[in-house]
Amino acid sequence: MTERRILVVAHAHRDDTVEAAVRVVMALRESGAEPVMDRDDRAALSDVAPVLADVAVLADDVPVERIDVAIVLGGDGTILRAAELVRGGTAPILGINMGHVGFLAEIERDNMDAAVARAIAGDFEVEERLALAVKVRDATGSVIFESFALNEATVEKDSPGRMIEVVLEVDRRPLSSFGADGVVIATPTGSTAYAFSAGGPVVWPTVQAMTVVPLSAHALFARPLVVGPEHAVAVELQNSIGASGVLWCDGRRTCDLPAGSRVSVRRSDAPVRLARLHPAAFTDRLVRKFQLPVQGWRGPTGTMMTTAVSVIPMADAAAEGMMEDT
Q1: How far apart are CA 152 and CA 247, in angstroms?
Q2: Which of 64, 71, 255, 321 has the fewest CB atoms inside 10 Å of its own CB, making it the most exposed?
Q3: Do 256 and 146 share a domain, yes or no?
């Protein structure tokens, strides 16, 4: 059997996460799998946990293409960082929530040992999430930046004292121009993040679409848009003095946008892959993470719900007719 190589990504500035990283690395070694870490993670973690000092380093010792799965210990921000680390490979990401909301995480920390055992055994399903391909051209048409985004690409003003003037485009056709604090272009995964806080809709992960959400726009037509994955969206900054801005991809990768810049966004050919141990209804995840009130719900059986909704696997929900019930 080929030795499995498993990337461990952890937030190094929390004691509970450092302890969890040590437990995961020891479990991988005991099973015969090879733990791997990003160079910066290993340096930061080994300062407080010397047992991690000899863990193999991603890219230096093990190429990303040979990583079988990434185990992430942290919240959504750490999972976004892991998506960046495994980009270029095919490794799915298994998130173990060590934070607060942890919307992308598969399980909570209490079930970590069982989750690691299943990751080692390859006992999980892979869910592909739509990602964005992002490209920036300057006023001369030269490409000055390229990246991807799992959550969103955001064009924002770079100064708190003024707006930016933008032209919004879909499929190389102008749609509207307006002044705004910015524009968020989000995936279904990112619809519960920045785009949600800006007034965008929640989009189920199974829907292949992009949402376009203007930020504090001074315009009559400035409602959120939902665009199919076969379309391309672009945001152009007006070519005038002081019209610069900034682009953020997942809040991690950034590019300054001089006046006249053009940011184009389309579906990436390479989705982000998430490892799922317990396929469950996205509705349940929304209720649990946002603590939504569901008291009074009767459901298809007529049993009133008085406490937090339980997680019902999608296959079971379909068997009970819940997919058709209105």
Answers
A1: 10
A2: 321
A3: yes
DSSP string, 247-280: EEETTTEEEEE-TT-EEEEEE-SS-EEEEESS--
In a domain, 91, yes or no: yes
Instruction: Please give the positions annotated as active site.
Output: 76
Cβ atoms of 105 and 95 within 8 Å: the answer is yes
Mean pLDDT of the chain: 89
Domain co-membership, 139 together with 260: yes
The strand order across the sheet containing 262-267 reads 143-149, 132-137, 262-267, 233-237, 164-170, 173-180
What is this structure's pTM? 0.88
Choose one of 96, 123, 150: the last residue of a domain. 123
Residue 274 within any structural domain of the chain: no
Whichever domain contains 246, its CATH number is 2.60.200.30
Side chain identity at residue 16, one-letter code: D
State the pLDDT at residue 105. 84
SS3 69: strand
The model's pLDDT over 219-233, given as tens digits with 9 standing for 90+, comes to: 888 899 999 999 999
Q: Which helix (H) or strand (E) holds 212?
A: strand 210-215
Contacts of residue 21, defined as CB under 8 A and 6 or more positions apart, other chains included, come to 8, 10, 45, 49, 52, 73
Q: From the first residue on, what is the mean pLDDT of each consecutive set of 10 residues in the chain (326 residues)? A: 87 86 96 96 94 96 98 93 97 88 78 93 95 97 98 94 92 95 97 95 96 94 93 92 88 96 98 90 88 90 54 39 36
Burial of 24 (0-12, 13-18, 19+ CB in 10 A): buried
102-125 confidence digits (pLDDT tens):
688 878 777 899 999 999 999 999
Helix (H, G, I), strand (E, B) or coil at 22: helix
Residue 276 maps to a domain = no
If you compute the radius of gyration of the chain from its CA atoms, what whole number of angstroms results? 22
